Amino acid sequence: MIIAVDGPAASGKGTIAKALGRHYGLPVLDTGLLYRAVGLSVLKAGGDPDHEADALAAAGFDDAILVDPALRSEAVGSLASRVSVHQSVRDALIARQRDFATQPGGAILDGRDIGTVIAPDADAKIFVTASVHVRAERRYKDALSHGGHPDMDSLIADIQARDTRDMSRDHAPLKVAQGADLLDTSDLTIDAAVQRAVALVDAQLEGRSRS
């Protein structure tokens, strides 16, 4: 069983994917970490994330970097969005993601192109979203909890810029996959969002079994 969870930054898709993993007993891959790893690798190498050759060279990163705390920073998140526009980088990471998706027993993947490119035949697909201001507030609270001093206007501008890059890129743009259910978490608690996600997945799985 493969479950695809897509959506923009700070929509709650990562939290929902992990909860679905616990509920269904499936491994979870945050595919955004792979692009963050490329972005961080470019940074460490002194390269330019907007230069395709530099980004592609960084796509061969050592898996050890996936546990680097720096991957979770806002700065690296922005770098991930910039390197992800390069088709060669996306191609280099597709095999990793599909291998994870097709492992025995199934898996859950969260990202921006899971239901459209990585696993278009997934058994269940959810597109998680939320308003820009709600997503910025989540980033703001998260930064405060980690001792940061965030600026709300900057957070909103960054999210809007990342949305624009993700939705307008030529290759695998962020969009609702065919057959995906939309889940807006703007006015939902975490528990309510997870419950809704489970209900949507169960309904899709039941529909497939009937067909």
UniProtKB/TrEMBL annotation:
UniProt KW keywords: ATP-binding, Cytoplasm, Kinase, Nucleotide-binding, Transferase
EC number of this enzyme: 2.7.4.25
The keyword Nucleotide-binding is assigned to this record: yes
Residue sites binding ATP per the record: G7, P8, A9, A10, S11, G12, K13, G14, T15
Predominant location: cytoplasm
Gene3D superfamilies in alphabetical order: P-loop containing nucleotide triphosphate hydrolases
SUPFAM superfamilies listed in its UniProt record: P-loop containing nucleoside triphosphate hydrolases (SSF52540)
InterPro entries noted in UniProt: Cytidylate_kin, Cytidylate_kinase_dom, P-loop_NTPase
Catalytic reaction list: CMP + ATP = CDP + ADP; dCMP + ATP = dCDP + ADP
Cytidylate kinase domain sequence ranges: 3-201
Molecular function GO labels: ATP binding; dCMP kinase activity
The keyword Cytoplasm is assigned to this record: yes
GO CC annotation: cytoplasm
GO biological process: pyrimidine nucleotide metabolic process
Family: Belongs to the cytidylate kinase family. Type 1 subfamily.
Name of this chain's protein: Cytidylate kinase
Naturally occurring in which organism (per UniProt): Sphingobium psychrophilum
Taxon lineage: Bacteria, Pseudomonadati, Pseudomonadota, Alphaproteobacteria, Sphingomonadales
